[in-house]
Design goal:
With about 350 residues, the chain is of the alpha/beta class. The chain has helices at about 65-75, 120-130, 150-160, 205-215, 235, 265-270, 280-295, 320, 325-340; strands at about 15-25, 25-35, 45-50, 90, 115, 140-150, 165-170, 230, 255-260, 305-310. This is AB hydrolase-1 domain-containing protein.
Amino acid sequence: MAYATPQPAIALPSSITFESIRLDTKPTACLECSKVQGAGHSGYNNILVVFLNGLLAPQSFWLPVMALMLRRLQIVESGIDNDVSRPQMLAYDRYGQGRTIDRDPGDEGKEEGYGHDTLDVVHDLHQLIGQAMRDSNNQSKRIMFVANSIGCAIARLYAQEYPGTLAGMLLLDSIMANSDFVSIFPDPDSPDFDPGSLPQDVTPEMLCETRRKFREVFHPSVKNPEGLDRRNLSALLPDADKPRLDQGFGGKAPLVTVVGHDPEWFAKESLQGSMETPISITMNYTNPTWHRYNQGLTKLTSPEKASGPIIAKDCGHFIQRDNPMFVADLACSMLENIAKDA
């Protein structure tokens, strides 16, 4: 994306380590992971924070967030690194993504580009979490997801597949899982299309061109480098506001914080990016649709456990890249609330 604020370099603490993990069921391939071991005796050390990537933002985008979270926890707890209480953390690149160069062994023999779906990713993630926690004395850690884009859909599906595990979700500009990303825009070729209903700065030609580009790039049938098949995602998650996630860790409803991009910033980013989407198209169609979806996400949990939609000022789709401090602050606030609810 061309429209982004340069971020200062953030030194990574030694508590962030890097490891290659082979799933027991897929021993021929490695997943590249970034890990932080839990420490201390407060309410944080029995929480596992898992960072979930989108399609285009690998785990490296989370490293500044992890570093800033550790720095804040260190200051809040004691100011002495060896005495700080911190959660266990895990970020990783899925097969064929980022530093994970190995392909998903389960894709062998399947059509190229359509090897595995989001449920397969969820099952792999469950194995990864189990293996990453083998060196932990507490096998019932409360899971907190910090997710971006399609990672938000993976977090929701994980909570559905493995009820009783989730304590909280921080959803950063979630993918609109029930959308084909084309129907957002009116179809000038439809028999009931009314040109008179268009905003003053939107033309039928602009709509046709935008629909064409979005169909070629964002439609769920479009293949991606990691071979993640999105064609059934709308069937898996047909609604933003359900199914509700009432059965979180300990039978309690999980915390859910929903964050959306800055509409004006995203519009400029979309214009200057490879799609060259006109600002009027983004402001009149994409942003309102996305905001309604985010409003639905806040209804996944009990009202008192929901926050948002919060607008990430001066941030586009990759909020963790554009403002890692903002994300770290929200994540630490959720950590505090999870610890209090123990």
